[in-house]
Automatic annotation (TrEMBL):
<feature type="domain" description="Pertactin central region">
    <location>
        <begin position="33"/>
        <end position="132"/>
    </location>
</feature>
<dbReference type="GO" id="GO:0019867">
    <property type="term" value="C:outer membrane"/>
</dbReference>
<dbReference type="Pfam" id="PF03212">
    <property type="entry name" value="Pertactin"/>
</dbReference>
<protein>
    <submittedName>
        <fullName>Autotransporter</fullName>
    </submittedName>
</protein>
<dbReference type="InterPro" id="IPR006315">
    <property type="entry name" value="OM_autotransptr_brl_dom"/>
</dbReference>
<dbReference type="InterPro" id="IPR004899">
    <property type="entry name" value="Pertactin_central"/>
</dbReference>
<dbReference type="InterPro" id="IPR011050">
    <property type="entry name" value="Pectin_lyase_fold/virulence"/>
</dbReference>
<dbReference type="InterPro" id="IPR012332">
    <property type="entry name" value="Autotransporter_pectin_lyase_C"/>
</dbReference>
Length: 137
């Protein structure tokens, strides 16, 4: 079994991660050694087409795990607040830099007072802000 992980550097570019919808209720999980961003975008999304009889839905989310995160950029994530599901960014080690999180929700109403964690880190001084879309993210 190969357990190697990639170092990924993104500079003024975009990386689109498409959730695997070949099986319902299966989430896509990506593991990196290090993610360095410089004005880049990471876009987590469901595949916009139907593959066989399975249609992309809010049931398919992406978890991006990296040992470290550095730089600056934007993460575009999806949530299903009513069902406590979302794309997730998990930094197991240090995170440094400034990042915006743009969120698109399914639109179903969550229970009052519910919360959902989108980003976790093992430490560092990274700042994560909620970005505002001028139109749908």
């Amino acid at each position: 079994m190969d357990t190697s992980k990639a170092d990924v550097s993104l500079e003024n570019s975009a990386w689109t991660i498409i959730a695997d919808i070949t099986t319902t209720n299966q989430n896509t999980r990506l593991n990196l050694a290090n993610l360095a961003m410089s004005g880049a975008n990471v876009i987590m999304m469901a595949e916009p087409v139907t593959r066989s009889s399975v249609t992309a839905s809010a049931e398919n989310f992406t978890t991006l795990t990296t040992n470290t995160l550095s730089g600056n950029g934007n993460f575009y994530m999806r949530t299903d607040m009513a069902n406590h599901q979302s794309d997730q960014l998990n930094v197991t080690g240090q995170a440094t830099g400034d990042f915006k999180i743009f969120v698109t929700d399914t639109g179903a109403s969550p229970a009052a007072g519910d919360s959902l964690t989108l980003v976790t880190t093992g430490g560092g001084d990274a700042a994560f802000y909620v970005g505002q879309c001028r139109r749908r993210c």
